[in-house]
Specification:
By secondary structure, this protein is of the alpha+beta class. The protein has helices at about 10-30, 35-40, and strands at about 55-60, 65, 70-75, 80-85, 90-95, 95, 100, 115-120, 125-130, 135-145. The strands form three sheets. A four-stranded mixed β-sheet has the order 2-1-4-8, with no helix packed on it.
Length: about 150
């Protein structure tokens, strides 16, 4: 004779049926046509991208060194050259064949101690600069497109 313990309980079968019904509902829900979702994923160009606001970056000068020596920015950003030394400096654009790499990228006058010079970069490229009072004190500004 078989004992009652070897027969499946009715509650277990009810649980199995509920799980199967839940699975069927999930397949119907997630299997429906989601064209709006597919279009949004495939063509993000349809949505406007937020415009990037221009930023001001600071390059500090002290103890004969520009810091950071190399800085990466975007077109439209500005670089503020802050003189934290006790001597005046002059920020000067490097020259190629006697012509400045970037017209206007010179402080024109000396930058006194605890003062600054700011320049806004309007074109992309790599632009070297140095202290006009000591050409060995130099740095680079890498300007990426917007």
């Amino acid at each position: 004779m078989e004992s009652d313990e070897s027969k499946p309980n009715g509650i277990i079968w009810l649980f199995v049926i509920l799980v199967l019904i839940g699975f069927a509902v999930a397949v119907m829900y997630f299997g429906r046509d989601n064209q709006g979702l597919v279009v949004a994923i495939q063509s993000p160009a349809n949505y406007p991208t937020p415009t990037r606001q221009p930023r001001v970056y600071t390059v500090y000068y002290g103890l004969g060194v520009f810091s950071p020596t190399n800085i990466r920015i975007h077109v439209g950003d500005s670089v503020k050259f802050q003189n934290d030394s006790n001597l005046s400096i002059r920020v000067v654009s490097d020259r190629a064949s006697g012509v400045p790499e970037l017209a206007g990228f010179d402080s024109i006058n000396d930058v006194p101690p605890k003062d600054s010079f700011t320049f806004t970069f309007t074109e992309s490229g790599t632009f070297g600069y140095h202290n006009g009072k000591n050409p060995n004190e130099e740095g680079t500004v890498i300007v990426r497109p917007q």
